[in-house]
Design brief:
The chain has 276 residues and is α+β, with helices and mostly antiparallel strands. The protein contains six helices and twelve strands. Strand 6 and strand 7 form a beta hairpin.
Length: 276
């Protein structure tokens, strides 16, 4: 089975590219972030004609997450238990469309996958940063609890984490520190590493270590041709799932050309589950 995660930065705007990539990559499950659409204008037909089942969670032109699968899609969960809410400027707090889960695959090879669009802190002192760290803390508690309850759980936490956990994950760490940029602050990195301490493993980095291995390049200032990127999209796998990983890669080629997302797809190939 091949699973992938991809922040598409507007699914409707990139429907043709997503369809072409699904056909070319032959993935079985795609976790999608930043669909930027409501359920009523989601391009369901794109996935239906390719024999994918799809679950989507979105209710505005911002955020939005989805899971598309051609190996079954069951027990869909929109938001995780206790997911923090956010609101500002007198607006009532809401649970944003940033997390969706489903069970895919069958039998011993079935796995639980989350498509996650972690909040962007926006600034080190911005109220979004406190929201981001709280959001991650609650997610980690839920994921660690599930793993403690079932150590053999096959669970993938995938998506755009909006964190560069190591210095090599940005093109110029000294610039980031000097300017006080987000994504590399001690608090954000500690929140990410807490998932690793809970037993989840980044299954891509061991096969494609840095520096210079990125998943995101801003549209501004020619970041992509200058190779000035960030590694912020990850697949964190439970130990049982990590044991079945046979390959993983970042499809940097998909960042090229007209109409590309500013993120590249991250793909993980799985063999049979242990004992299957």
């Amino acid at each position: 089975m091949k699973i992938a995660t991809w922040n598409v930065n507007s699914l409707r705007a990139r429907a043709d590219r997503v369809e072409a990539w699904l056909d070319r990559s032959d993935v079985d499950v795609l976790a999608i972030q930043e669909t930027k659409c409501k359920d009523e204008n989601f391009p369901w037909e794109l996935f239906e004609r390719m024999d994918f089942e799809v679950a989507h969670f979105g209710f505005s032109q911002w955020n939005g997450v989805a899971i598309a699968s051609r190996v079954g899609l069951a027990d869909v969960e929109r938001t995780f238990v206790g997911q923090p809410e956010f609101g500002k400027g007198g607006v009532d707090p809401v649970q944003e469309a940033r997390a969706i889960a489903a069970t895919v695959g069958e039998g011993a090879d079935a796995l639980r996958i989350w498509s996650l669009y972690v909040p962007n802190g926006r600034g080190l002192e911005d109220e979004h940063m406190a929201y981001k760290l709280h959001w991650l803390d609650v997610l980690r508690e839920r994921a660690a609890g599930a793993l403690a309850e079932d150590p053999g759980l096959r669970l993938a936490l995938t998506g755009d984490w909006n964190i560069a956990p190591q210095d090599e994950d940005v093109w110029d760490i000294e610039l980031f520190r000097r300017e006080g940029f987000t994504h590399v602050s001690p608090g954000e990195r500690a929140a990410f590493h807490a998932f690793e301490e809970a037993g989840f493993q980044d299954v891509v980095r061991p096969r494609h270590p840095g520096p210079g291995v990125y998943t995101y390049w801003d549209y501004k200032q020619l970041r992509f041709p200058k190779r000035e990127g960030m590694r912020i999209d990850f697949v964190l796998a439970s130990p049982a799932l990590a044991d079945s990983v046979t390959d993983a890669w970042i499809d940097r080629e998909e960042r090229k050309g007209k109409g590309a997302s500013d993120h590249a797809p991250v793909v993980v190939e799985l063999g049979p589950a242990a004992g299957a």
